[in-house]
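Suppose you are handed a protein chain with no further information: no name, no annotation, nothing but its sequence. What can you learn? This example shows the usual starting point.
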Amino acid sequence: MSHLPTYQPLNDYKDRYCELHRTNTKDFFENCVKSGNIDEKANRKTVEKINQQKVKIAKIGSSLRKKRILKVFLIVVIVLLVCTFLLFLFKMLQGQRQHALLVLAGSGGLAVYLYTLIKNKITPSIKSLDQTKKLLLEELEALIEEAWGQMKPLISQLNETVSARLSETTYPLIRLDDKFNIERFAYLSQKFGLWDNDDINVSTLFVQSGEINGNPFCFFKTLNHYMSQKTYEGSMVIHWTERYLDRENKWQTRSRSQTLRASVTKPFPDYYNDTYLVYGNEAAPNLVFKRSKSKANELNERQLEKHVKSKSKEIDKLMRKKIEKGENFTSMGNTEFEVLFGAENRNNEVEFRLLFTPMAQREMLNLIKDKNVGWGDNFSFNKHYMLNIIGAEHLKGIDISGDINNYIDYDLVKMRSKFNDYNNLYFKSVYFAFAPLLAISLYQDYKPQEFIYRNIYRQRFSNFEHERIVNNMKDANFAPSNSVTNNVLKTRFLDNSLRGENVIVTAYGFRSVARTAYVRVRGGDGNYHDVPVDWTEYIPVSNITNIDL
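A reasonable first move is to predict its three-dimensional structure. Written in structure tokens, the prediction is:
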């Protein structure tokens, strides 16, 4: 089967790659099962025993809960009976003997009976059920361990690169790196303008580099910090006495009260995750534009037609204004593309048209209006000279790290299903992140000029890769001891050591200090009062750790 690009990413996925990847994923898994000599029948029997054991444990747990509730209920009844007994004993001693003897005998006898019932039957039964549950849990743990043992030869064949390799098998034009090494970073940085990893407000949680038709790319997932504002509220109640004239025109006094409320707004450290694709290509090297998602796929035909008609008038006005100012902007002949792609802020009309040929416009519109195959128009597209940044909304909710914990299981049937589901979603997610780029034929035809690497780089991996590694470790290893917020981890290569690369990790967080502000508020008594508002001050803290990677 040919893997040459057709410049029709939506149809290619629907008609070819979707089913091809399902087949490749399924075949790969079954080959792993076969090469691992997994006894599916034995695993099924073990899983059946596990499920049966879980049912037994659930039943015993239910019985335990009921008996414990009954025991608590009876203890409450005994307490009430004892209180009744003591009350009537007191009355009897005070000479109020009417019915006292009968109540004493009844409450005392019933309390003794219930106590005996709890002691001789309910408590031993609870202890017995507890012991049985403990034994069943031990047996369950042994069965689960046995099931994991049966799956071990299969799981040992898998690692975090499997998902990437499967995607390459289906779509060989995309090549994914094992690590974001220093050579790939140098290529993206020096040739295409990728930024340095020196922003202390951004930390790399995940990075996946590679190339498509020789053009480099990187997926990034980052933790981003910024200072926002938080409003704190406080209140106090005031009391006063006031005089007033009643209906008889006489002076009276009355007490009044009022709740005074106040608020203060203070800086607050906030965080969010971002996931995006960065792609380098030398085509149209002077072009800059930004476009945001239009949500056109959420509109029906009539709504879409109305939206395009309305927006096209705005674009015509914009074009006239820019021409009057002597700026370079000419609306495309394809009004629907001009409206829905929405890159009116472009700086170079010639290069924009070079990229977005009539075929590229058609395929981009297919992606934008798609309702069934991919995710429709959920992407932003920023071109900054030779760097293209795609922010696809669907990437934010999907783990594309290839972590095998997304699909491993002690149950072969479940693992087969989870493996296929995860890897099919992985490929779809990666493919449709690239789809806006694949729709541009010039990008697919453009081969980069040869890049001359330096002979020697002091470090093997990029700082982005270092950050990914340390972010996968426990945050407590690096966090300042008094930090109460998320911690942004930044790395700096120091030197090579016998154990690997020596890296400085700096964790940036915030400690908190309780404060109280007093806000002057006028009350109904005519006076001003200082209303206390408790707020939290966040003070930057950091911690430096030296590690070998």
